[in-house]
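Review session, final week

We close the course with one last complete record, chosen because it touches almost every idea we covered. It is CNTP2 protein, a protein from Pedionomus torquatus with 712 residues. Go through it on your own first, then we will talk.
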Amino acid sequence: GSGLNDGQWHEVRFLAKENFAVLTIDGDEASAVRTNSPLQVKTGEKYFFGGFPIQMNDSDHSLFQHSFQGCMQFIHVDDQLVDLHAVEQGQLGSFANVTIDMCAIIDRCVPNHCEHGGKCTQTWDSFKCTCDGTRYSGATCHNSIYELSCEAYKHLGKTSNYYWIDPDGSGALGPLKVYCNMTEDKVWTTVYHDLQMQTSVGGNSLEKLPVLQLNYSATMDQISAITSSAEYCEQFISYSCKMSRLLNTPEGNPYTWWVGKANEKHYYWGGSGPGIQKCACGIERNCTDPKYYCNCDADYKQWRKDTGMLSYKEHLPVSQVVVGDVDRPGSEAKISVGPVRCQGDRNYWNAASFVTSSSYLHFSTFQGETSADISFYFKTSASDGVFLENLGNTDFIKLELKSATEVSFSFDVGNGPVEIVVRSPNQLNDDQWHRVNAERNVKQASLQVDQLPLEVRKAPTEGHTRLELYSQLYVGAAGGQRGFLGCIRSLRMNGVTLDLEERAKVTPGVKPGCSGHCTSYGMYCANGGKCVEKYNGYSCDCSKTAYDGPFCIKDVGAFFEEGMWLRYNFHSPGTSMKDLVSRTLLSSTDPEITAPDLSLNKEELSFSFSTTKSPCVLLYVSSYTQDFMAVLVKPSGNLQIRYSLGGTKEPYNIDVDHRNMANGQPHTVNVTRNGRDIVLQLDHYPPTSYSLPTASDIQFDSPKALFLGKVI
C-alpha cells in the first residue's frame, strides 16, 4: 500500500488456505501479494495484536520492542468479529497498555495549519505541509514566493518585464501578474483587462442600455491593494461619438457613466475629477461648442471625442462603462479604456526615524495567534535597542538589536520563553540598511538577517500553540527598555504594512521618513552615475555618464546610416548645457560660442562601435586652433588614432595593425592621454602605451566640437 502512516483508516486482510496465502491492503485486489510456493499455516490458540510478549521466565512479560502505535477496529478472526468489550471485561484474552473503545491518535491536520491551500500530512507526533503549487513557502506555506511590488523587483536589479507580485505578502490575497516598467525614476505597475480599444456601441434600436464589462488579470481586491499603496494611479478613458451625447451637460442627467471600485457609479470623465460633471475640454474651456462641457454633448453628425486620464485612485479601476445615448437612428459611439497604471510604492519606503532611545510608536495589538511573520529594514549607528514588542498576560513577542552584531527574536506562547539569535560576522550598526525577517508558527520559529543563514527553532510537539497578546504593539522603546535609535522602514506584520510615517507625524521624538539611502543603494548607480538622496528613496543622476535609465546601465547609442553625422559643441563654463544642446539641434549654423579659454593637458575618451565599412571616421575633435584628434578606420580595416597638438608638421599617428575592426563585431576603445603619455586599450586586450614626440605641444588648445560619423 502507500501512505499507511497518514492517520487515516486502512484495511488489512490476510487469508491462508491449504497451500497458499494472500495479503490484501485497502481492498486493492490488483496489488495483493500471493505466495509462490505451496505452504501450510498452522496456528496456535492465541492471536497477538499490536505486539507480542517474549517470555523470559514465567513472571516476566517483556514486550517485543517494535510494537504498533495507533488504532485498530473491526478485528475479525476466521470471519468472526472479535468482541473487544469482552476483552475489556477480562472475559476474553488479555491486554496491556491499550485504551479500548476509543482512538487516541491526535489528528494534527484538523484544524489545518497549512495555509494558502497547502496539503497537510502527519506522523504520530507531528505534521508536515506540502506547499507545491500554492506559490507560498515555509513550514506552513505562510510566505509568498514572490516580491511585494515592482519597487522590490527594481531593487533586486531587475529590468522592465512582467512579474508576479503579492501585494499583501503572507495575507489572503494571492499573487497577480503585472507589468513593471522600470525605465523611470519611479516604477510604474500596470494591470491589464480584456476590453478592446475602440469598442463600438450602438447603431440599432436597443431594448436596454449597453454595458461594457472589463475583466482584469486580477481581482478587485488585488488591484485595490496596489492602488492603495501607490502614490499616484491613472487610467485612460475615451469616448468617440457621432450623434451620441456623453454627460448631457450643462444641466441634464448624464447618458453615460462608469462603474469603479466597490461598484460605485461615477459621472465625471477622463481629465476631470469627482463631483465635476465636465469633460477635459470643459475644464480647459476648449470644447467644440462652448455651450457644452463635453465635445460629444454638442450632438454633431461628425465624429468627435472626449478623452483623458481618470486619476482619482480611490475610484479606480473602471469595471464597467454604461452607454446611454446610442438608440437614435444614426447615433454611434466607440469606447476605449486603458490599463490601470500606478506609480510609486508608499509601503516600500514607508519609514520613521527614532531620535531618542525613549521614542516609540504604538499600534493596535498584533493578531498572530497561530502564525506570525514580521519583516522590516533597519539602519543605525547605535549598538543595541528594542525594535518592537507586544505583551500578553505571560505571552509576549519581541525583536531587538542585542549588540552591534546580534539580532534577537524572543517570544513565549505558554511553554516558557524562547529566544533565537542571529550573529552577523559584520557590524550591523554601520548605517546601512539591513533586512530582518522573523516568523513563528505552530511548527517552528525562524529568524533571518540580510542573506545570513536562517536560524530555526522547532516548536515542542505537545503544549501551547496560541500566542495570546493584549497590550498595544510598541515599535521602539517599550516599558522602560532602551529603544531603538535610527531608522525602521517597510515594517510588515502578517502581510500588512504599518504606516510608520503617518504615526510618526503626530508622535514627539519620532520623525517621518529617513535620509541616507545612498549609503546602502549608491552602488546600484553604475558607470559613474551619482546617487541623489530623496525623502523616500533615491535616484541615479546619469547626466555625467554615457548611459541612461534608472541605474545608468542603459546604453545610449545611435545607428548611423551612410552620410549621417552628429556634432556636439563643447561649451565654456559660462553657458549651460541645455541652452547649447537645444541651439545645436535647432540650428545647423555655429552657435556663437566664446570658448577659446578651455585647453586640456589630459583627457580620457571611451566609446564602443561596430561597423563593416572602411575607411571611415569614427570620431573627430576640432578646435578653434589647428589642434585636433581623430579616431578612424583605415581602408585595411585597422584602427588609427591621430593627435595634432601643434609643434610638429605632421599629426602623430598610432596605428593598430593586424586587427580588423570593420568586422561587424562590437569593439570598445579607450584613449587616455596625460601630457605626453598616451595609453590605448582595445576590447579586452592589454593596454599599450605610446608617447608624443618631444617636439609636440602637450596642450590641446580650445577644443570646439566633437563630430561622430563624418567630419564637416
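Two points worth writing down before the exam:
The chain has five domains: 143-189, 192-346, 354-512, 520-555, 565-571+597-709.
Residues 239 and 335 are 5 Å apart (CA to CA).
Good luck, everyone.
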